[in-house]
Amino acid sequence: MPMLRTTSMTSLLTLALASSALVLSGCGDKGGYKGGKKSAAYEWLESPKSGAQEGNFLKIPTLGAQLEIPETLYVFKDCSETSHSPDGDNQWVPVFRCESAGDSNSDSDSDDEFAEPSSDDSEGLSMTFYLAKKQRPLDERSVAFFRNELKGKGYSVDEIAFNDSYHDKKGIYLKYQELNSDGNAMREIIEFMFPFKDVVFIAHMDYPFGETRSVNADWSAIMWYFKFTMPGA
After folding, report:
1. Distance in angstroms (rounded) separating the CA atoms of residues 196 and 42
2. What's the average model confidence in pLDDT over 192-203?
3. Distances in Å between the alpha carbon of 167 and those of 21, 57, 88, 95, 220?
4. DSSP 10-24
C-alpha cells in the first residue's frame, strides 16, 4: 500500500521552520534570529566552507563543528564530511554523514569483526547532522507544538521530549513513524534538534520500521562524539 508521504529527510522541524518564517519575515532584520546579529555559525550556513579530516577527526574550523569517528560502529561505518549544498525541500545544509556499508563503495567491511551481517537486499542507511537557521524557540514549551504538528500530518508519535543533557547536548528528541494507508507503521524517524544562538543542528536518521541492525547503538556513539563550539566564543 502507498505511504502517506515519502521520507526524504522527513522532519518535524521542517513544519516548524515553515510556519515560523512567515511570522519572522516582517521583523526588523539584521539577518540573524529574530533580526539579531548573525553568529559565525549563521554566516557559515550562508556561505559554507569545507573542513578536513585529521586522523579520526572530521573538523570544520570555520563552523566550529567536529566529529570524532568512534572506533566501534556496527552499521554507520563510513563517516565523512558531506558536500554542503542545501538538501531537500527544507533546504537544510548537511555537515557530517555516517553511512552503512551499502551506501558506499568500500569493500573493507569483510575484514571487520564488528561489522553487522549484511545481505544484498539490506537497505543502505545513514545518520546525518544538518544545520539550519533557528526560527523558533526549542525548549520545553515547544514539545506540545511539535506533537500536535506531527499528529496533524498523520504521523504516529512514539516520543517527543526536551532533554537538557542528551549525550551532553540540550534540545528536543523525537521518535515517530510514517504510516501506510492502513495505519501500519512503515518507517521510523529519529531526530535530535539542538540549538545554538541563531542556528540549530539536527541529527537525523530513518529506517524501515522493525529494522534489526544496531542503528540505535551507532546513533548513541556518534551523538557523543559530535562537538560544537561557536567560532569566536
Report:
1. 10
2. 96
3. 29, 18, 27, 19, 7
4. --HHHHHHHHHHHHH
Architecture of domain 12-22+37-82+93-104+123-228: 3-Layer(aba) Sandwich (3.40)
Q: What is the edge-to-edge ordering of all strands in the sheet holding 226-228?
A: 52-54, 57-60, 65-68, 226-228
Q: Which residues pair with 143 in a beta bridge?
A: none
- Under DSSP, the state recorded for 127 is E
User: Rg of the chain over CA atoms, in angstroms?
Assistant: 18
Write out the three cell numbers for 24.
Answer: 519572522
Best CA proximity match to 199, nearest among 85, 48, 45? 45
Ordered by start, the domain boundaries in the chain are: 12-22+37-82+93-104+123-228
Bridge partner residues of 185 (DSSP): 179
pTM (predicted TM-score)? 0.82
Segment 202-212, tens digit of pLDDT: 999 999 999 99
In the chain, which residue ranges form alpha helices assigned H by DSSP? 12-24, 40-46, 142-152, 215-225
| Three cell numbers written together for 74 | 556496527
Closest CA to 41 of 127, 134, 128, 142: 134
Q: For the segment 143-189, what is each residue's pLDDT rounded down to a tens digit?
A: 999 999 999 999 999 999 999 999 999 999 999 999 999 999 999 99
